[in-house]
């Protein structure tokens, strides 16, 4: 019996443990932190061995195969030891994909992947048996085990792609690539780009890569590192012969000389970046032979994901907007770009080596006050103090929202779009977004 050791007892770890046990592995789950009670109960009820607050080297190093949580970096001492002993280490996506015949749609990118994955799933589920997994919702492994679907839409992070071997989506989507998580890639942007492109590395000419042709990082990389897949670019600025482009507010999708037109004036999601997300999702749907009418209606009634430019409440004609999912500068760029009114901007958190320069034009034009919400705001203060008259610092969400309430005038927006990770003051970006919404409701 092969021994499967799982590092990390969260959603993906416990899902993998259940699937591994069902497939005949001897399973052991090890977490350096504490495992949530709900997950412990699942492990206990299924007779799966586990430990928390430690990794017992003797138990881990006996593995025939290791699945590591995406949060554990390559330089962790135990990972190094496993590498030295040549024990294969895979991600949940790699492990689970071995046990399904489903058509896989893999979506990655620095921004837009959650919205694109959710929108793609929303369109496909109208006509197909489809699951949504990966970096979103219930674990892929657990879904396969409980109810294997015909199609899976997988939102995949670079960390999950780092640990694939044979994983191959039939349709891969690359939304964009901007500097993010560079702390995990030795501050080398090239390594991060290479990691994202692993989504296509096992693809063949019968598979598809849908990508943003307006993104110079992607097009430059493709020109130097060609892939085997059939390329389907999407663009807001130039016509493409295969793929999707925008002309007179219509998305035009062409695949094998089959053209469809989708008007964008009724899209439920606003902003240029959402036109791109709609192009990517529609192209996937078109490849999977979803009817045009279904695609059109789905784009018109899809209202986005929580914590991504989510309108919370209007109080005294001030709109409060939760964009807590903006954990990098590029995501905040889209948020500020879409602001149509003077904006009080709540920003800050754990900086991942951010360069705020690309935000300067929007800050000059649209931002009337900045509230820095983080443990260390020095870089923000240095970047923006000269541009905005009012810059305030705080370490409490409730206080940030109260200050915003005082600073905003009727007709303004209050935008939480942090451009940073949340781990300095919050459990995760969801916790940060929920605290924001609660504070707004308590005004």
TrEMBL record:
GO cellular component terms given for this protein: cytoplasm
InterPro entries with a match to the protein in the record: Mur-like_cat_sf (IPR036565), Mur_ligase_C (IPR004101), Mur_ligase_C_dom_sf (IPR036615), Mur_ligase_cen (IPR013221), MurD (IPR005762)
Keyword Signal appears in the UniProt entry: no
UniProt: ATP binding residues: 109-115
Keywords of this entry: ATP-binding, Cell cycle, Cell division, Cell shape, Cell wall biogenesis/degradation, Cytoplasm, Ligase, Nucleotide-binding, Peptidoglycan synthesis
Domain Mur ligase C-terminal positions: 307-420
Location(s), subcellular: Cytoplasm
Reactions the enzyme catalyzes: UDP-N-acetyl-alpha-D-muramoyl-L-alanine + D-glutamate + ATP = UDP-N-acetyl-alpha-D-muramoyl-L-alanyl-D-glutamate + ADP + phosphate + H(+)
Assigned EC number: 6.3.2.9
Domain Mur ligase central: 107-285
Functional pathway: Cell wall biogenesis; peptidoglycan biosynthesis
Domain of life, source organism: Bacteria
Keyword Nucleotide-binding: yes
GO BP term (any one): peptidoglycan biosynthetic process
Pfam families reported in the protein's UniProt record: Mur_ligase_C (PF02875), Mur_ligase_M (PF08245), MurD_N (PF21377)
Enzyme class of the recorded protein, top EC level: ligase
Main location: cytoplasm
GO function terms (MF aspect): ATP binding; UDP-N-acetylmuramoylalanine-D-glutamate ligase activity
Function comment: Cell wall formation. Catalyzes the addition of glutamate to the nucleotide precursor UDP-N-acetylmuramoyl-L-alanine (UMA).
HAMAP family on file: MurD (MF_00639)
Family assignment from sequence similarity: Belongs to the MurCDEF family.
Name the UniProt record assigns to this protein: UDP-N-acetylmuramoylalanine--D-glutamate ligase
């Amino acid at each position: 019996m092969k021994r499967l050791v799982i590092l990390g007892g969260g959603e993906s770890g416990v899902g993998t443990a259940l699937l591994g046990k069902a497939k005949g592995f001897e399973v052991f789950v090890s977490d350096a932190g504490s495992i949530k009670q709900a997950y412990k109960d699942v492990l206990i009820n299924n007779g799966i061995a586990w430990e928390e607050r430690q990794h017992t080297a003797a138990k881990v190093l006996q593995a025939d195969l290791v699945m590591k949580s995406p949060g554990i970096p390559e330089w962790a001492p135990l990972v190094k030891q496993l590498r030295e002993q040549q024990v294969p280490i895979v991600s949940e996506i790699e492990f689970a994909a071995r046990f399904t015949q489903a058509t896989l749609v893999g979506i990655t990118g620095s921004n837009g992947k959650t919205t694109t994955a959710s929108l793609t799933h929303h369109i496909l589920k109208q006509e197909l048996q489809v699951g949504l997994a990966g970096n979103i919702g219930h674990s892929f492994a657990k879904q396969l085990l409980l109810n294997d679907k015909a199609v899976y839409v997988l939102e995949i992070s670079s960390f999950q792609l780092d640990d694939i071997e044979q994983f191959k989506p039939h349709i891969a989507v690359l939304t964009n690539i901007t500097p993010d998580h560079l702390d995990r890639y030795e501050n080398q942007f090239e390594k991060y780009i290479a990691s994202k492109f692993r989504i296509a590395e096992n693809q063949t000419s019968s598979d598809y890569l849908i990508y943003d042709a307006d993104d110079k990082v992607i097009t430059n990389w493709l020109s130097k590192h060609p892939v085997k897949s059939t390329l389907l670019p999407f663009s807001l600025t130039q016509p493409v012969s295969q793929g999707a482009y925008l002309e007179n507010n219509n998305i035009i999708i062409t695949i094998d000389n089959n053209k469809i037109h989708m008007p964008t004036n009724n899209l439920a999601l606003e902003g240029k970046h959402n036109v791109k997300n709609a192009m990517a999702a529609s192209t996937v749907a078109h490849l999977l032979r979803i009817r045009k009418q279904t695609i059109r209606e789905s784009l018109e009634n899809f209202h986005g994901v929580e914590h991504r430019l989510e309108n919370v409440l209007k109080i005294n004609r001030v709109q409060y907007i939760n964009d807590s999912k903006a954990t990098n500068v590029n995501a905040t760029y889209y948020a500020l770009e879409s602001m149509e009114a003077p904006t009080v901007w709540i920003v800050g958190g754990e900086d991942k080596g951010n360069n705020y320069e690309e935000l300067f034009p929007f800050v000059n034009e649209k931002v009337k006050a900045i509230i820095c919400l983080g443990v260390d705001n020095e870089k923000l203060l240095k970047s923006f103090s000269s541009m905005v008259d009012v810059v305030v610092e705080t370490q409490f969400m409730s206080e940030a929202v109260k200050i915003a309430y005082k600073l905003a005038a009727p007709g303004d927006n209050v935008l939480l779009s942090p451009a940073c990770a949340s781990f300095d003051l919050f459990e995760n970006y969801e916790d940060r977004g929920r605290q924001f919404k609660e504070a707004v409701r308590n005004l």
